[in-house]
Amino acid sequence: MERIDLPAVGPTDLPISLLEMGCSGRFELITHPHPNDQPLPPQSSLPHGLPPTSVSLETEVEKRFLRNPAWLPIHDTDAAFHRFLKLAERDVHIDSLLHCALSPLHSGISVVRDPTTGMLLDFTEVLLGDTGISAKNSMSLQRPPNPNPSESLRGSNTNYPFLPGGMEELTLEQIKKKSELEEDIDFEKELLTVPPGLKVGMDFSDKDAKTTKGEINLLSLLSTFDDIIDSQPEAEEKEKGHGSGNAPKLPRTNSLEDLGIKDSPSTPGTTSTEKKDGGTTKPTGDQEEKKRWAIPINITSPCDDFYKRIPNPAFKVLFVLYFYDIIILISYWLEAHESVFVAAHTSAGKTVVAEYAIALSQKHMTRTIYTSPIKALSNQKFRDFKTTFGDVGLLTGDVQLSPEASCLIMTTEILRSMLYNGSEVIRDLEWVIFDEVHYINDAERGVVWEEVLIMLPDHVSIILLSATVPNAVEFSEWIGRIKKKHIYVISTAKRPVPLEHYLYTGNSTKTQKEMFLLLDPTGNFQTKGYYAAIDAKKERTSKHTQSFGTKNPSQNTTPSQDRAVWLSLLHFLSQRQQTPVVAFTFSRTRCDDNARSLASMDLTSSVEKSEIHSFFQKSLRRLRGGDRQLPQILLIRDLLKRGIGVHHSGILPIMKEVIEMLFSRGLVKVLFATETFAMGVNMPARTVVFDSIRKHDGTGFRNLLPGEYIQMAGRAGRRGLDATGTVIILCKSGVHDMGDLNVMMLGKPTVLQSQFRLTYTMILNLLRVEALRVTDMMRRSFSESHRDTQAHEQQIGQLKQTLSSLPPLDTEGQLSDLLPYYYTVTELRLTAEALQCAVLGSVNGLKALSVGRVVVVNNKQHFNALGVILQVSSDSVNRTFIALIICEKGNEEGIGDSPKGSAFPHLYNTALFTPEGPCSHTVQKLKLQDVSAITVKTLKVIPDRIIDNYNKRQQLRFRLDPPGQAISTATQELLRLAEANPGGMMTLDPVNDFQLKSVDVVEGTMRLRVLQDSLKDFSCIHSPTFSEQFLRVQERMSVQEELDKLLFLISDQSLSLLPEYHQRIKVLQSLQYVDSSGAVQLKGRVASQISSHELLLTELLFENALSPLAPEESAALLSCLVFQQKTQVEPHITNTLKEGIERVLAVAQRIGELQRDCGITQTAEEYVGQFKFGLTEVAYCWARGMPFAEIAQLTDVQEGTVVRCVQRLDEVLKEVRQAARIVGDSVLGSKMEKASLAIRRDIVFTASLYTH
């Protein structure tokens, strides 16, 4: 087709052209005029033929010219660059460089109305606070809400958290106070030219311009302005006259809070200071009592006028509780918006407290968060609260239901994430309910509870529900102190249904009634029942011996013996109508074996069988056809029809829920369960049976702790149905030890203990917020609850006052070196004491201190006096000596003054004491610290005669008798030694004589000699006022030392976890997660969003270890992060996965070695050993679509564990996907999404029965 050249547009031609739209033959008419009056050729939306495959022309140009410099020719680059400029030519607008965003308005218009009529009177300008703040730069609740609805629920990793309650914002004084790293900067000469974090900067200084000193100083202007303001009251005072002459002048201050504007004015003469815990005032003085934050409530005096005070309560308790009065009491404090800690036994009705708070928040149109330690409990509470309140939501790792509801149920980890990420839900939050608070003792997850409690804002009230714990008040005191609010503690050890504890020794039809009461409902231990059980067991053993001969008794029983015991017990209990029964067995395998062994037992009626069958089939409808025929499901169906259930972590989650629901209906008569069934799952039974009282805790076998036993035994007894609950302990191999049983049943429950530890995620989340410090978190942890900072600060104020009131020191002339002398003497004293401890703690030292050894004694009564040891005590801890010591006549009882005693004269004056008049003696008991030196001399003495004679002469009738021959001889010998060695006697050397060759002792001995020699060079000791001035120095320094000690205790340096914090910061800096100034880098931002194994995952991400893998291979490789058990089956995996595993182990080894090098105690082998690859094949095949029935054949890991690991794997994949988005790796993000979709199927992700 020929090209047609159109003529130029004439004056009468219309500016019309055609635009071809794609390849469809559709055209559009363009009528706008063309610039420069050029003809309009036909145009097309396509450059040539078919549409291009590239994303857009802009992307193509950017990729070709900006990202890839290969298009530049080697020669003549200038011409090519000019050609590029023509392509990318654009108009230059210099004004755009000067454009800046409008600053937010700092004032607004307020309406003034008549208070009676409401008529508009005027408009006034008011200053707006908190302008320009956002979630990216402020922790204030005044910041505007996040406009992004997707981030309002969970928050964002770029958001600041809201200010935690009890953490005060920085005052003006704290902001002005310079830290150790800050320095004075000359803003004219010392400005930085290279920004922090960059390698290259710019020099903006004008080389030719001359710097001139500023004529005007801003501070001088401000001070002038202050003077003008201050001059006004003075002028007014002159006008007022004499009446205002005595008016107190307000001190100048930097903030209104220092003036106490918010507080009510105190009466004249009363000093009141603002408390840190609120806005109230408190008197200062000796009569002030220590502030108590935890307030125990007296539950014996209930609140009788509750309905008078609160006529319209938010929630009415519909049933009469055993603790009805207590619940009413708690409700009163909830109406007052106070925080409470409720510690009571299982089934005591603690949930009613949570329900009242939820109803209260719905009445106030606020929100409540209910946290639980385990996902199963969250699902159950969702069902219960949904029935009661309706407006309830659920947030777990894989489920999100009704997130806009007024009551949200979630695990504690999700709440922690919401707090760190500044979720908008926190704004409307009134209550946070922590259920099963005793879970804080969990070594792995306990730290999460402490983090959440510390991070909660001030406007949120706290409800803590727990089993009985001995230190509820102590725990509440810690929470109250860190949150600066009162915690009302309600603790009761009473049970709504009392328990009876029995020993069971039966094992056949004849002996099935052998059940002996061990602990009655009132808590009395019945030794009679214990001995009866022993007799019954002994009688059967003797009959067995007569029939079959003696045999060593074994602690372990055979399966057939176990079966006989269970059959006889369950027949006995079913006859007595004491079902349902929960049988706690501390082994998943034994749970399954015990249930299978009861094949001959049928405990259900035909009606119950029908009900079980219909419910079971209805529950299985949500499963695929193949999944309904899994071996475990078929086995459980057979067991349930006969009224027998099994509940442990190896059971499929949907099966556990079916069993729980049937048990709560009373259709499961016997449930073999592990300890997890007792944690929070509110499923009471008539009887609880303990298969054993020993369990394996991960390191070895041990007896049950009292807290564990109480928690499980508490499942016995249904409130409103049973008068008493029955607890039975099986004695299969023999009767347990009485002492063990007594401790287990009557011992104190486990106290709440801090499991606080530093994690990299916590450190990174706090480092990215400037106003929060990791040391603040450590200081507020329960492990540091012994730190009473408020009391210490009060003592510091008193010591500073004492220090300022002490007389000044005279350090002129001869006394100029008095302070250095004091420091030298102090060091000498400490060195001598350390050497003395080393000598007296050694075997040779104690041998030397035997009868007859001459020693030098220094204490309040004696100064460098010689003594001889007469007797040595047998107490090795607090060893004492009886010694005969020479003294002045008349100073036998220590009446004489020793003015130099407190100045440590024996340290620099080794001259021995010699009496000025007649020599006397005394016999005294000496402590180790009284012996300042052990001499080389020994005397032959008769200790018994000396001691008897001295004691006899202490009696009034024999006081004037002359001393005996033995005493006189010893005294004269000591006096002779003192006179023969006036400068001091030779003492035993710690190194040469006592053979103490340790480095500390050798260095200490050498240092002691140097210090003693240096004392002679000081001039202050020759001053006539030396003693008086030295005592002044000593008094001042003792106060200063106490002050320094308290200042250290309230400083960060005394935190127990501070060394580990520095070690972990070192690791993060080495891996470039934070820079040298502590600023979080990109790797750190990624790691802060990962809940566990954050270092390994981040390193794998940045090393591109996951990018080459297929989605199913990535899922298989990451399964090592969620699988913790050991497996005997070796997985069969692809070569790519083998290489991936080697790479993961190599990265883990490198991180482990780096941690070890930085001082962290965990070895590289321990760090690498926590990653187990036993489920790699299972995860790989599951992601590729293999049915679950075939998956179960690939491993010896139980089905329930496999499901739980795959569910947790999905959470890890979501975290990696989020991390990939932060990095900008969209390819990896889509791979993780594909992997997540591949594993989210069938029985593993079947919806919970509680939520649908």
From TrEMBL:
GO CC list: Ski complex
Region (Disordered): 31-54, 136-155, 234-293
Location of the Helicase ATP-binding domain: 331-487
Superkingdom to which the source organism belongs: Eukaryota
Cellular localisation: Cytoplasm
Main location: cytoplasm
A Gene Ontology BP annotation from the UniProt entry: nuclear-transcribed mRNA catabolic process, 3'-5' exonucleolytic nonsense-mediated decay
Chemical reaction(s) catalysed: ATP + H2O = ADP + phosphate + H(+)
GO molecular function terms listed in the Swiss-Prot or TrEMBL record: ATP binding; hydrolase activity; RNA binding; RNA helicase activity
Start-end of Basic and acidic residues biased regions: 273-292
Keywords from the UniProt entry: ATP-binding, Cytoplasm, Helicase, Hydrolase, Nucleotide-binding, RNA-binding
Stretches assigned to the Helicase C-terminal domain: 602-767
Name under which the protein is recorded: SKI2 subunit of superkiller complex
